[in-house]
Amino acid sequence: MNSLGERIKQLRKQKRMTLEELAGNRLTKGMLSLIENGKAQPSMESLRYIAERVGVEMATLLDEGNVEELRELLLEIETLYKSTYFPYSEEEKEKFEAIYEKLSAKKDELQGKKYEEVRLLEYYIRLSAHLKYEQEDVTMFDIINHYEKIHAYSRIIDCYSFLAGDAFYRNDYKIALQFILDAEQRIQPYKHLIDHIALLDMHYILTVLYAAIDNTTKTQEHLDLALEIAHKNKIYYRLDDFYRFTFIQAIGRGDKEKSDYYLTKLKQHADFTEDKLSIAGLAFAFAHYTNLIEKDYAKVPSFRKYISSEGMEKEAFDDHILYRMEETYAYWALGDFKKALDASEGVAIPDYVHHPVDLSIMLRCFAVRALCFHGLGEKEAAKTEVLYAYHGVAEFPNSIYKSFIQEAYEKIQYGKKVK
Q1: For residues 153 and 190, what is the distance between their CA atoms, to the nearest angstrom?
Q2: Which of 40, 136, 167, 397 has its CA 20 to 30 A from that of 354?
Q3: Helix, strand or coil, per DSSP, at residue 138
């Protein structure tokens, strides 16, 4: 037996199962046929399901030789990746360095002919980038070609997303967008073979990147496509991200009805999943809505209940910062400049935040601080804070946050009134 598909077909026939019987309720008959004929690569979850249906171990379906060792290394890397949030700690960096050494020792064995080999080569590139190691012997474009040859088409999107992410972190939003558009074109012949979550990811990234370059038409187009995929296939993955994105868009337009709707969706999602990150995000969402739509500033401190500083998980930290920024805005709007400055003491923009909308929301806090210093008669401190915010949003698309910062700048520099 030379291929995975042939092994699956032979085992199916030995069990006297039809394509439909083996596919069961997890695969389609058509997809299973493509897998057996070597025209599609099953995910590890699908492979595990097929193995269970024919009554064998997964290893029986896969090539022997060094594949078990490679699979163990792949599992070790994936486990570490899933449990790590960037930027990582020194301890986590040491773990990545140790795995990188293991990968480097195995790299000459990785010819890109098996799924495990290609995945490990992909991680070799990702780790090189994270650890800032230079390497030129294999590129992400080589990995994309390997995935196409073994029919792992969904992985192609993830590779282009990596390239886009690298450009995005350099604030090259148009280049990042072009990489995802290249992905969309590259997978077009295989679109019917790509899993829905990969397509959902692609349209989500396109939504975010079109928003970054202020193309509202394309932003809405890909947002609608993504939500259609999610609702049609009952996929809850990324729903929190989508609701949050559409909530911020609605706030930016001053659309109370849509803001209400997506704020409710965010609350329902957090209640349903009981996810700590989603719950922490509610503090910012409620405060942001209250400040900009309801303008009931005295209510904002009550939302702190959604975030507990003590024992707060690392991944919820951004939401804590955003909530403190909303507290700062509320105290300023109430005229309590000292409380506003106390609420924002030590607040800084994380170096991994790069989207113009996220940055604009955060930079608004420094304009608020500037207005507080100005109100307290501390003119130099006010100028320092407002210049940081003003120059920070200079190249960004217009938004309510950018407008606020510009008005604060004009008030402090020229004595004009802030609306």
Answers
A1: 7
A2: 136
A3: coil
pLDDT tens string 355-407: 999 999 999 999 999 999 999 999 999 999 999 999 999 999 999 999 999 99
Question: For position 50, which CATH number holds?
Answer: 1.10.260.40
Tell which residue, 409, 417, 403, 364, has the closest CA to residue 384: 409
* pLDDT per position as a tens digit, 21-64: 999 888 888 889 888 888 887 877 788 889 888 888 776 676 55
DSSP helix/strand/coil, 221: helix
Among residues of the chain, what percentage have pLDDT more than 70?
93
Measured from the Cβ of residue 156, the count of other Cβ atoms closer than 10 Å reads: 23
Does 129 lie in the same domain as 84? Answer: yes
Q: How many other C-beta atoms can be found within 10 angstroms of the C-beta atom of residue 66? A: 14
Residue with tokens 């100005």: 374
Range of the domain at 211: 162-231
Asked if 123 contacts 90 with a C-beta cutoff of 8 angstroms, the reply is no
Contact between 50 and 22 under an 8 Å Cβ cutoff? The reply is: yes
Residue 87, both tokens: 């930027």
In the chain, the N- to C-terminal Cα span, in Å, equals: 74
Instruction: For residue 335, tell me if it sits in a domain.
Output: no
| CB-CB contact of 100 with 127 (8 Å) | yes
pTM here is 0.74
